[in-house]
Structure formats: C-alpha cells, structure tokens
Amino acid sequence: MIDEESLGDITLGSTVLGAGGGGDPYVGMLLAREAIRKNGPIALVDVEEVPDDANVVFIAGTGAPGVLIEKLPRAAEYERVLLELERFTGKKFDYVCSGEAGGLNGITPFITAGALGLPVIDADGMGRAFPALDLVTPTLYGGSTTPMVLTDEHDNTMYLEAESNLWAEDYARAATAASGACAAMAIYPMTGAQAKAWLVRGALSLAVEIGRSIRRAREAQVSPVQAVVDGQRGVLLFAGKVEEVDRRNEGGWTMGTAQLSGLDEDAGRSLVLNFQNENLAAIRDGQVIATTPDLIMCLELDSGEPIPSEEIRFGYRVAVIGLPADAHWRTPDGIALAGPRRFGYDMEFTPIEEFVR
Amino acid sequence: MSLRIGIDVGGTNTDAAVLKGTEVIAATKVITSDDVTTGILTALTEVLEGLEPSDVDSVFIGTTHFINAIAQAKNLDKVAAVRLATPPQTLLPMIDWPEKLLAAVNGGVYICAGGSQYDGRPLNPVDEDALRAAAREIKASGVRRIALSAVFSVVNDEPEKLAERILQEELPEATITRSTLVGRTGILERENATILNAALLTLADRVVEALEDVIARVGITAPILLSQNDGTVMTLETARLFPIFTIASGPTNSMRGAALLTGIRDGVVVDVGGTTTDVGMLRHGFPREATVAMSLAGVRSNFSIPDVLSLALGGGTIIGDDGESVGPESVGHRIVREARVFGGETLTFTDVAVAGGAEPIGNASAVSGLDQAVVDRALAIAGDRVLQAVDKAKLTGADTPIIVVGGGASLLAPVPGLDHAVIPANAGVANAVGAAFAEAGGEVDRVFALEGTTRAEILKEAREEATARAIEAGADPEQVRIITSEDIPLTHLPSGAAVHVRVKAVGPFLSPVLVAEGE
Description:
The complex is a heterodimer of chains A (about 350) and B (about 525).
Chain A (H helix, E strand, L loop, with lengths): L3 H14 L8 H14 L4 E2 L9 E9 L1 H4 L6 H15 L5 E4 L9 H9 L3 E2 L1 E2 L12 H4 L7 E4 L5 E4 L4 H15 L2 E10 H7 L1 E2 L1 H17 L4 H8 L3 E16 L2 E10 L7 E7 L1 E7 L2 E5 L3 E6 L16 E7 L8 H7 L19
Parallel strand pairs in A: 1-4, 2-3, 3-4
Antiparallel strand pairs in A: 2-8, 5-9, 6-7, 6-8, 10-11, 10-16, 11-12, 12-13, 13-14, 15-16
Helix pairs in contact in A: 1-2, 1-9, 2-5, 4-5, 9-10
Chain B lengths: L2 E7 L3 E8 L2 E9 L5 H11 L8 E7 L2 H8 L6 E7 L13 H7 E8 L14 H14 L3 E6 L7 H13 L4 E4 L8 H13 L1 H17 L6 E4 L5 E3 H6 L7 H14 L4 E6 L4 E7 L2 E2 L6 E3 L2 E3 L6 E4 L5 E3 L6 E5 L4 H4 L10 H7 L16 H22 L8 E4 L24 H7 L3 E10 L5 H18 L8 E9 L8 E10 L4 H6 L2
Parallel strand pairs in B: 1-4, 4-9, 5-6, 5-7, 7-8, 11-19
Antiparallel strand pairs in B: 1-2, 2-3, 9-10, 11-12, 12-13, 12-16, 14-15, 17-18, 20-22, 21-22
Helix pairs in contact in B: 1-7, 4-5, 9-13, 11-12
C-alpha cells in the first residue's frame, strides 16, 4: 500500500530516476496526497499478480515543467481521462501504471487510482524518464501508444488512433501545446500478459527505495549520495562545481550542456554534461564516461537533493552519479531506440560498469 | 556633516554603526530586547554620544520582527486567499502549510474563473459574479486582508488587476495584496509569499510606527529605510505594504558589510557567531543567491535569499578536553557564564582561540595553563572545517580573498590556514555597516512569449526594465549595474515559444532623502 509517508519517498526517488528531466514531482505528490487523504492508501501490486487477461494502461501528465508549476494540474482530468478511454475502447481497465517512473509521471497514476479505486502496478515503461512517448519499453516489443485519450482542464478531449508511436508523439505534442501545455493522457493500453513481458518491473518500489535511502542517510547524517550509489549498483562519476550552463530550446526540448570543475578527488578534472531535458551523456576530460539509456543524474553534494536540468545553475556543488538502465534497454534494440545516437550524439553506448575513476 | 546609521536587529544582538562616508565613526552591540525597540533605543543612544542627531541624513534598519512573527505564528492577521484559475481546483492555496501557521492565518479560500495561459492569452474570462459573491462572503466572515493571485499573472497581470478593482468595490475597507507584486513564477510559492505578506500587514503598521517613534526619540528627523533580503532597501511606506521583503535581510547585511569594510567586491565571507559560522560568496559586492525553493517556517516559497553554508562552529562551541572534538554542541548565549575566560567550567572555542593567541576576551589568564597540544588540535580541526566550507563556496579554483566578520571574527585569527584572511576593523558590526550601505534595486522575473521576437531582444528589454525599476527605486542612473541575468526556455512547447527570464539591477542611492520623500 502507498500511504502519505511512502508517497514522500516515491516523490524524492522519482526525481532521482528523472535523470535530470521528468518534471518536478512536487505538484504530482500534492495531487496524489489529496487523493490518499480523500480515499485512503492506494494498493501497489507486483506485475506477477496481474491476471494475463486484465486491461492495463499508462497514466501520464504532459506539459512544460515551467507551466505545470503555474497552471496546476487538477484531479478531475486524471479521473476523466481513464473514463473517456473506456468509452473510446469499450474496455474496462483494471489497473493503471506509470509510463515513466522518473519525475512527475511516477506519481500521476496514483491520482487516477485514488479517484477510481484502482490498484497501481509496480512497474513502468522506462525505469527512468525520457522526453518522448515512443521511448518506452513496449515500443521494443510492438506495443502501441494508441488507442489513447488526452484531456485538458477546458473539457477538451482528444481520442487518437495513430499509425505509429512516432506519429502518436507528434499529435500528442501538438495537442499538449494547444491545451496551454498542461494535459492528462491514458496511453499504451495493454493486457496483463503484455505488461509482464514488456515493462520494467519494480520501477516504483525502486523509487521508494531510493527516496528512503536518501531520507535515512540524512537522518543518520551520512552521505545520501553514497547511500544511493551503494544501494543501486551505481557509480559516483564525478564530484564538482557547475561553472557554466548553456541552455537553449530546440523543437520544444531543453537542450544544452553544463560544465563542471572537479572537487575533492576530482580536483583538476572537468566534466561536460549533455542534456535534452534528461542528462544523456557525461564526458570527462574529453572521454565519454556514461551515456543514455543508463541513468545520469546530479545530486546536490551534501544534501543528496536531485537537481533537474532545468534548474542546474552556475555555482551548484553536485555529485554526478550513474545507475545502470534496466535490462530491456541494454539490448541492441533498446540501445537503437534510446541510445546516444537517437539523440544525435555521435558516440557509442558506454555501460557505467566500465567506468574507471 | 552627513552621517548614515545602520542598525541590524538579530535574534541575539542588536548592532548599530554610524558611518561618515564609508568610515565607521561609532559602533555598538547590545542585547536584543523582547520588544525589539528598547534594544534599538539603547544602541542608538550609545552610538550617538557626542554626535548631533541633526547630522544624520538617513537610517537603515534590518530587523527580525517579521520572520519572528511567522516562525512563532504570532501577531498575524487572518487572510482570505482568492485565486483566479479554472474551478474547481484540486491544489488549493495554503495546501502544504504547517498546522499552527495555517490555523493562525487561514481566513478562507476562494477560487474564481480567470487567469492567463503561459503566453498571456486568457485562460478563462474573469468571472465577475463569482468575485462579487466571494467578496460578500469575505465581508461576512470579518476578514479584511486579501491575498489575490491568478494563473500566469507574472506574464499578464490584467486579470489580477481587474479582480482587485472588483473586490475593492465590494470591500473598500479591505487591503488586497496582489501576487504579481510579491512573487515569481510558481503559483503555490508565489501565493504563499502573498498570503504571508497580507498576514503581516497589521504588524507592519505597528513596527513602522514603533521605528519612527524610536528614531524620533533620539532626535533624528532623517528618513528611515528598511533592509530587504537581496541587499537593497525599501521605504517605510513600502514596508507597510510589503513587509515580506525584509525577512531574510540578516545574512545579506553581514555579507554586504564585509564588502564595504574591506573594499573587496568578490570573495568569500565567513561570519562567525556564537553557535554557527555562515560562509557565503560575494559577487559584485552582493551575496550569491540560493537557487532552490526555500522553506520559510515550513512554507515553500521562492524568494531570493543568500546562498549560505552554515557550520556548527562559533564562540560558544564546546571543545572536548583532549581537543579532538569540536562541537557541534554550543553553550550558546550561556557563554558569558560557562566559558573558562568568563569563570565557567566548559572549554569553548573562545577559550582555545584566546589561548592560541586571539585578541584577549574576559580573563585570558584562565586559559593560559591549557595544554598547547590540545589548543593546536582544536584550532586545526576548526581551520579544516572553515577552509572546506570556503572551498565549496568558491566559484573557481583561483585564489579568492577570505573576509571574516561577526561577533566572533577575532577568534579565527590564530586558526591555521586562515593567515591570509582579512579581519577588518569593526568586523563585529559588519551587519549594521551592511545595512547602512544597502542599495536601490529593480528586478524582472517572468515568462516572455518568443513569438515575433528573439531571446536577445527579450533579454535586452528585461535589462532595460530592471534598470528603470532600480532608478525608480532611487538608484543613481550613472551607477546602475546588472548583477543577475539569465533565461530558461520552457520545454514541451512548439519551438522556442516561451522563455523564463530573471534580471536584477542595482545601484547606490542618489539621495536617500529624495527616495523617502517620493520625489
């Protein structure tokens, strides 16, 4: 069960899994907390417990992070979006699931689940955050974004059937812009059997675990950064200060680089972090040391507070850590879909296990 | 003779300094009184001895009145929060507040249709009938402070202004604080700041009158200005309307004072108090600002406050008898009884510093028999901690000057590794000196639509607007400079649709008299 306390851990942990993107889950946490206060704790179930013939769907918020902190998402859209999908498909959905455990969308399924009394599956389609709808593990196995529904707070609803997941992404993006950059979606309807075969298992309990280890490390006054690295087979890639940030907007994405100079053990070294919403490649002294689909994230050096790429600024003192991506992503198909070349970086995928300090 | 007086009211001490030009000609430190103003009166009486009150041409005050009221949830007004958005909202104003503060301030929440999209287009037409109905309910409830907000009012404040007119028509006796005048992008945080501001208004009236009264009692007729969080000042008339802008002025004043006392504009400031040492970075003579959302007595807010690292090291820090442990416990204000130099039994950082050669405090002979090895060990540990913090605060590996200020500044003189640190004269009252040298500032912080323009043009426009606001606030047009300039694109919008810009301009006062008189 997910109650108020574990919701706090999920919120923190999903920001870490956001790997620089995914949006600030604070607003999502407040929405889910309201749902829990109104309807009681929400069941989180292992994907193994889901019957093969059950209907499952991803619930996700879409919009610009800078808009969602001003035009606040409402519970009504997260409830309506699933009812409209049921009307559109003629199917009853038994479980909701997160498409993206990293950031805001690690939390949004709980808003729908709380309102409609449904359980949430402990899995997701990324094990992290990515900036596009097709970048989910179901795409690797022929899963389809549509039929999907998108709703906004002005009572507009889009019912979509698309020829491919890339087309679905384009239409959803256009609809999101038309809504004023804040909408709710129900996407990738699938069966329980497909969920078992396609999804990243345990993604939400992973978020809880990461959040809890940061909270407990803070309470015990030990390094939260070390706690995350040790608990998740991760590596500390770099400790440094942010010297310069170059950010620009291309095609709706926050693109850019952050340059860091080393502290402590890394004194005298430099690191360049490349991001497109999410952090996608880390280059130390000219050498690629980590790339997508592995997770690269910045945590504030002392507090362990995750710092998204929209917020990283001159003067931050951060630990750059790497966590291994889920096995679904580390296949040739997975790397072709979400590896560095997908994002225009002319480099090979470099598993973080190969990193040498 | 033209004199400036700076006063900094802290939790423990009230400091005052008289400056002639940039020279400190009198300074004092007294205990902060419970009513605050008695302490100010004592301090002023001391520093004015032998001076003519009529020679004082301005008084600058930094005070903890308002942050104390919020922290203790005392002396606050009930506030009705009105939000223009798409009803019904799920996340209501004051949603994440601590219970005690909520109980003291919550005077009702009202959601009416209105607000704007990210590019300034209307979100919903402003619902005049709903606003009038809300006003009638507020009237019946007896609440007379209103905090008014609207979705994306930072991009387009017309809906908020229209709602203000409607509410004021129905409730002429109410005071309305508009969110756009208080906070930045992020409606919950902006609303929080707006509501807290509205809750402080009765106290603000009382504080302003008390300050005017105490300054008049010592015979000063010069204008009084209050320090703000960002190192700039406001008039008392503005303070009556926007007390929230003064709540984090303490650390800012110390850092500004360090810059003035040394002439160093870029460096690390180490502010040594009784229990803690604060380390922060000066850039262009102003503290570098914190970049994360901060919690104000448990309420999320997005003010600009200085980025300061706090170490558990101060004059009262308890030292283990072998010198191997330094803090984190401190005897705090009991230092005047418990430290060895004051006849007590506890070995404190003050004792080992005096034994190590710092300027004598109290009875220095009480520590002359301390084992030198113990003293050396404790000072080495303290030095390590301070230097690590200094390294973290520095922006580059290059040599950066270190300035030590605060009541315990002299204690760092014998600490190894800090031999090159500058400990200016009057370091103990750097905060009062910093208050006296607050500047006039102007800020632009909002989302701009990119349609039909470029980022460069928007930045230029924002810089011009911030400069104009600084001049309007009293800055010398010849000396206004931009100290912050940044823009962040919003994602998931059609290419380059909008950008979040923050620009801040500051400059020394042309004449504080002109500003206070509003000429």
